[in-house]
Amino acid sequence: MSTQPAPTHGAFDHRMAVYGADDGFVAAALPFLTEGLADPAEPPPAAIAAPDKLDLLHDALGADAKHVTLIPHTDWYTGSAANAVARSAGYLTANAGPGGRIHLLMEPVWNGRAGRSPRETTEWIRYEALANLLFAPFATTAMCAYDTRTAGTAIVDAARRAHPGTDVYKDPVRLAAELDAVPLPEPPPDAEPLTEPNADAVRQRARARGLAPADADLFATAVTETMAFLGPLTGTALLWGEGSGCVCELRSTRRVDDPLAGFVPPPTAVLEAGQGLWFARQVCAYVDVRDDRAGATVRLQYA
To answer: Strand pairing of 247-252 and 295-301?
Structure first.
């Protein structure tokens, strides 16, 4: 079991704990939560982890258990990495002390969505990296828990690059750019051109490809929100896939040039039209952005 030393408190404190047994989890989590409990300037710390690990923590904390918020990670990590950003931001707004002060122990569902494929894992490592920028203004102390029994060596090694204090930590912008340097797969031969990629056209074609009406409405809004964010498009849009796997690709004349595009929470926590790429990232499972000399390609996959 290994944990990072605590950096100087003040700005966002992003730690990482790696373990391979239940007692290793408790050995890392207990002093972290106790540290939060000992700070009179902070509200109660929270632990977001697998239910069996929360039971271990409850027993180890003893009388202090009533002062720690225990949240099953399946209640927190309910969708994409972008959804996790929204959940974290909302929790800080509702529960953190002045300046965002709070201790959060966080364990993604690595044996579920987060670890189900290399592509999905990439999304979560990007989230871990960008968290260093997104939450930099907050005096939040977060410790990300990595159980090698579920996360696996490759995931842990990648995550080390996203956590300050490790000997392989990489600047978040550079790490995100490295992840995005992987070319997107070519559109399939049956990709359908949309000469007028408005909401009605996307909705109609998505429904024809088996997407449920309510989902087609959300997908169409995500596409038009992305179009509004991008500005002038180059040529036609493309749409392919079946059912919830519908994909729409847009080509813009301008680059995005911002790894945080669509990840910064808007002033209101309510998901609504007019939020651009944030709306798209909250609705879609994947929003891939690739810049080049001529502009940008943005590919949205509903689920």
So the answer is: antiparallel
Place of tokens 């697998």: 50
Query: Tokens for 142?
Result: 């977060």
When the pLDDT of each residue in the chain is averaged and rounded to a whole number, the result is: 93
Total-model pTM: 0.91
The reported pLDDT for the residue numbered 13 is 98
The CATH number corresponding to 2-180 among 3.60.15, 3.40.50, 3.30.1490, 3.30.530 equals 3.40.50
160-173 pLDDT, tens per residue? 999 999 999 999 99
Residue 83 burial class via C-beta count within 10 angstroms: exposed 0-12, middle 13-18, buried 19 and up: middle
